[in-house]
Amino acid sequence: MPPHRLNLKVGAIVMLLRNLSISHGLCNGTRMIVQRLHEHCVEASLVTGSNRSHTVLILRMKLSPSDANIPFKLNRLQFPLRFAYSMTIRLKGKHLKMLKYICLV
User: Fold this and answer.
1) 0.85 exceeded by pTM
2) How many Cβ atoms sit within 10 Å of the Cβ of residue 32?
3) What does 45-84 look like in DSSP terms, one character per residue?
4) Where are the domains of the chain?
5) Are the C-beta atoms of 39 and 56 separated by less than 8 Å?
C-alpha cells in the first residue's frame, strides 16, 4: 500500500507499485521521473526497461489494504506510486549475480 500522503514534485524519482501494462513497461517496480503534475494524473518518463524515456500518464486507482484483522473493507483512491531514491536489497542481489558472471568470464 502506498503512503497516505505523497508530496510529489517535478523531478522526483518514483516507483510503480502495480502492474498496469507489462507490454508498455509499466510493471511493478518500474522507476520513473515525474515530468508534470495534473489533478487526476501524473505525467512521468520511464527510467528503466526497454521503453526508457517514454512519457506515460499514471492515473489514480482504487487501492485497499490486505489487512484481514479489520472487520470492514477500506478503499482509497490514489496514485500507485512510491518514492524510489534508493535500491532495495533484492535488487542489489540481481546486480551481484551479474557481476559474478562478468568476473568469471
Assistant:
1) no
2) 25
3) EE-SSTTTT-EEEEE-EEE----TTSSS---EEE-SEEE-
4) 13-104
5) no
Cα separations in angstroms, 92 against 18, 84, 88, 89: 21, 14, 7, 5
**CB 32, CB 12: distance < 8 Å:** no
CA dist 56 and 35 (Å) reads 10
Q: Calculate ∠ Cα 36-38-41, nearest 5°.
A: 100
Cell readout for 17 is 507499485
Q: pLDDT: is 44 or 51 the higher one?
A: 44
Does the structure show a pLDDT above 70 at 95?
Answer: no
CA distance linking residue 4 with residue 86, whole number of Å:
20
